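P.,

For your records, the input lines for the assembly:
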Amino acid sequence: AQSVTQLGSHVSVSEGALVLLRCNYSSSVPPYLFWYVQYPNQGLQLLLKYTSAATLVKGINGFEAEFKKSETSFHLTKPSAHMSDAAEYFCAVRSGGYQKVTFGTGTKLQVIP
Amino acid sequence: GAGVSQSPSNKVTEKGKDVELRCDPISGHTALYWYRQSLGQGLEFLIYFQGNSAPDKSGLPSDRFSAERTGGSVSTLTIQRTQQEDSAVYLCASSLRGDGPADTQYFGPGTRLTVL
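Structure tokens returned:
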């Protein structure tokens, strides 16, 4: 079984401040982990993914995430928030070769000018 | 090349009517997924097609929901006798193979279904 938990359905940060979106996963086998972003009225776009090559993964738009096995976490960070980062972010997990991807409930990021 | 496309973008229907939602995956992608996104909820997996294999229908919420994929390409999600709780955004995604760490799902813009 696999699952993912995103802490905080809404996160607000000031423009220029650190962005930290939390994701914890549960998987019986080594997981593959993903972060997607959804802008209003659009589909989901892949930000980054962890596939066991490196624990620190860099993605698009300055985002990165670190896989921590001991904490079963894959938190998403960005050093300095931009107004354009306002969107909903989804963490997702796939367990090994299992085709189904399980998504978290999402975190809406608000950036305050 | 073109991304995943879905039609219609918006659909308003009356309770009890049937609706069909269409998904055109990226050309050459063998895997296709349907998800439902309800207000305040995450993405709920509905069904998964992989090549010529039998689809994984484990996420379909009731027998009013069905989907088919013709010729390994276009897919149609059908909801019969729609209910108000079916109101949601229905997202389609496709991927090259459906498995493996390098496989990434590409999402369409979704169809917003409103059942009155």
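Two observations worth noting. The beta strands of chain B are 5-7, 10-13, 19-24, 31-37, 43-50, 65-69, 75-79, 88-95, 106-107, 111-115. Chain B has a mean pLDDT of 91.

Regards
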